[in-house]
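Comment thread on ticket #2218

A.B. wrote:
> Attaching the input chain for the structure job we discussed in standup.
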Amino acid sequence: MAVDTLGLLLTVIVAAASATDREAGRRLLARLRDRHWRIALVRADGGYTGRLFDLARDVRAIALTVVKRTGDTADFVVLPKRWPLERTFAWLMRSPRLARDYESSTDTSEVMIRWSMSMVMSHGLTRRTSLHQHAGRDGWTAECPPGT
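C.D. wrote:
> Ran it. Output below, let me know if you need it in another format.
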């Protein structure tokens, strides 16, 4: 899965359990470059190493950096630059359809992830607040113009 710095989904690949992270990473980088050609930097997990660096740099013209976990801790630690992806996983796991694997094909799983992410994003757009939270002393505040 590729997300932007806000944690919003850019593209997703669901691979079979027999596929390695590097194989899925190649497909993900290709799809990412095709759909979002201006992407220049990708941060990846420690499983995406080896020839994937060369592919990203030479073929896809993407700088690939690996965010590694420090080996001195056994507890959960928030890794810098990785928390938007972890937060996106948490948002998606609120969807009952994604909490368990009900799908029989990887294509259907990808569609369900996109559908769940569209629900997350539309919920953020339609969140309503009461009017008294936006009314200031001199009328409407800058955050909420009249009519919203």
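A.B. wrote:
> Thanks. Noting for the ticket: The longest strand covers residues 41-44.
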